[in-house]
Design goal:
The chain has a two-stranded antiparallel sheet. It contains two helices and four strands, in the order βαββαβ. It is an alpha+beta fold. The protein has one domain: Alpha-Beta Plaits, CATH 3.30.70.20. The N and C termini lie close together (10 Å). A hairpin with a 4-residue loop joins strand 2 and strand 3. 16% of the residues lie in helices and 22% in strands.
Length: 63
């Protein structure tokens, strides 16, 4: 699993970037982007997003 940002809903406040313990979320030009290989699916970003624009999603990553 990894975090997925809904780019249509995201207002690019940056809160998710600041709480990510692995720095898997970076600011792209308009919205945050998640590095699925670095994301540990802790859910901190989902909990702090003020507009619920982030969710956990299954990935094709091999553990």
């Amino acid at each position: 699993m990894a975090a997925k940002v809904d780019s249509a809903a995201c207002d690019a406040c940056g809160t998710c970037v600041s709480v990510c313990p692995t720095r898997a979320i970076r600011c792209a030009p308009e919205v945050p982007v998640v590095d699925e290989g670095t994301c540990i699916a802790c859910g901190r970003c989902v909990k702090v997003c003020p507009i619920a624009a982030i969710r956990m999603e299954e990935t094709n990553r091999i553990s």
